[in-house]
Amino acid sequence: MTTHATGISLPDVSGHFGRFGGRFAPEALMAALDELTTAHAKAMADPGFRGELDHLLATYAGRPSLLTEARRFGEKAGVRVLLKREDLNHTGSHKINNVLGQALLTKRMGKTRIIAETGAGQHGVATATAAALLGLDCTVYMGEVDTVRQSLNVARMRMLGAEVIPVTTGSRTLKDAVNEAFRDWVASVDHTHYCIGSTMGPHPFPMMVRDFHRVIGEEARRQVLELTGRLPDAVTACVGGGSNAIGAFHAFVPDESVRLYGFEAGGDGLDTGRHAATLAGGSIGVIHGMRTYLLQDDDGQTLETHSVSAGLDYPGVGPEHSWLRDSGRAIYQAVTDAEAMDAFALLCRTEGIIPAIESAHALAGTLRIGPELAAGADEEPIVVVCLSGRGDKDMHTAAEWFGLVGRDGGAR
Amino acid sequence: MSGGRTVATAFDKADAEGRAALVGYLPAGFPTYEGSIAAAKAMVEAGCDVIEIGLPYSDPVMDGPTIQDAVHQALVGGARVADVFRTVEAVAATGVPTLVMTYWNPVDHYGVDAFARDLASAGGAGLITPDLTPEEGGDWLAAADAHDLDRVFLVALSSTDERLAEITEACRGFVYAASLMGVTGARSAVDTGAARLVERTRKATPAGMRLPVGLGLGVSNGAQAAEVAAFADGVIVGSAFIRRLLDAPSPQEGLGAVRALGEELAAGVRHRP
Description:
- The complex is a heterodimer of chains A (412) and B (273).
- With 412 residues, chain A is α/β, with parallel strands linked by helices.
- Helices cover 46% and strands 17% of the residues of chain A.
- In chain A, the strands form four sheets. Chain A has a six-stranded mixed beta sheet with strand order 3-4-14-9-10-13, sandwiched between helices. Chain A has a four-stranded parallel beta sheet with strand order 7-6-5-8, with helices on both faces.
- In chain A, strand 11 and strand 12 form a beta hairpin.
- The longest helix of chain A has 24 residues, at 205-228.
- The radius of gyration of chain A is 20 Å and the shape is globular.
- Chain A starts with a helix and ends in a 10-residue tail after the last helix.
- With 273 residues, chain B is an alpha/beta fold.
- Chain B is built from twelve helices and nine strands.
- In chain B, strand 7 (175-178), helix 9 (193-204) and strand 8 form a beta-alpha-beta unit.
- Chain B is globular, with a radius of gyration of 17 Å.
- The mean pLDDT of chain B is 95.
- The chains are: A alpha/beta (412), B alpha/beta (273).
- Chain A binds chain B through residues 14, 22-32, 169-170, 175, 179, 182-183, 186-190, 283, 285-289, 291, 294, 296, 299-302, and chain B through 57-62, 64, 68, 72, 75, 80-81, 104-110, 130-133, 135-136, 153-160, 163, 167, 178, 180-183.
């Protein structure tokens, strides 16, 4: 198990998590990536930067986020469920942690503009928010399909002063938004920072984004110890690119008794081919600057993905998750659209909390593994679930799924 | 690989004639499998000294709208990696050195050594790799040596002198200088930093190593080709050829337009202002 213990120090100096990660990027971006690597390292070692970021997290984002015991939901799962309430952060998801960090770095590097890709719109909204707060110009790329299913977030970003550009190439979802953001960045890199929204992309992004989200697991670890006097038996999170999951997992990686579970978007089911379960159904390749698991065909062409959740609808995954998977430290499973939506409804009705559909994948996975954890256990197992975001943005999708519109709405 | 077909020979020949080499790009499978071969042959007949065959890829991050459209059309038309090798074989048969320009994942997925082997046996001269730099390219450096293939990496306006030295040392055939910070596509003017990048690249090239510098991105007409030929060893044109095919009312007219552009550019590289 020594590899697990040393894994905490990854990536290596060139951005590799074992055979994953690295930097597969156009030469034009190499200088900027080096500059960013240096700026990030300096900032993390600078008490001034940490102080400024911690101050914003405490007084603006609302950290530490609560750890809420979900008793009635936990009864259904057969375990004690503690929700790490990233949904209560300003802007409604964990995304603000990373964005505040990167926006502060942008200013330190003397850049005046920030760009981002977004799927569900949560990262876009968070980026637009940080840009407004710190006086940066902001452009957000969003797949045209996602601008329709997440129209409320488009309006939020525009209200906050960001330019939102619908991307009409390829599958018109998150991966195409990433492509377009890279195209912008190659041409604007002297004054623009690309604020990648997940633990993905070329080095140093996977490491840097993880470092900014690490606070999720650090807080949760402390809170669960305070509340229960012991470590949890498992930590669960949804995985698209994997930012909330790596944030929730990272502080627990050295705790070998704590099982780590990532739940990917299983869409219509792994056997249908209509899913976005990269780690469960993919193979190793290179996408968006990193070596990682990805969904690809026989020629190495990226496959189109499907998920009811725009935020998980991505054919790649952060390289550290690939490493955690192959090392056996974390377990990744697929959750179907239907399972996720059932869990979505269950949390609403048992706890009075409307989760993001992304987070509902973690809830569904918790319902699945609960009985396994409880079987033969001496005491009631404790599971920390990363509730990465709130579901207000998903009400349109939920209304359609559950038939909530019209006089007889809500019958399901 | 026969001696007459190497990229180095093509650049040497151009140099001996006191001009720059003309390098033309076209994706395989665009506008169709046969159409791309016909267009590449027309480019050769018009005076291209080297041909780059693009491997159509689902996520062309470094390409602007013109090449994105062409590649999308090729993929929708069913273009496969095997078609790329067959296209290379047909084009290389004209006697002009033929490189493949490809994003890294299709090669990685095929298997780097297997890809190099099959490219070499199709008569291909080597690879241009827009999202692979030497530091991640260990397998490719070895495979290129094993199969006697050229490896063309890119340098950019933002490259440090240290990186220019590392990259040029890893190159064989030529080094691809990106004339501007941005994606592929025709531009109205050549970036003023381009000449300086070529100069810096030459200076950084290890002593005793003969490595021509080809300049690409944005060149679309004879006048720009002449301008670039004044300071670079090669002029690379892609999107402008594709534009001719995309805009043509018929495949026949498209070929005519490609030929006309090729002739204009070939005259350009011979007319150093």
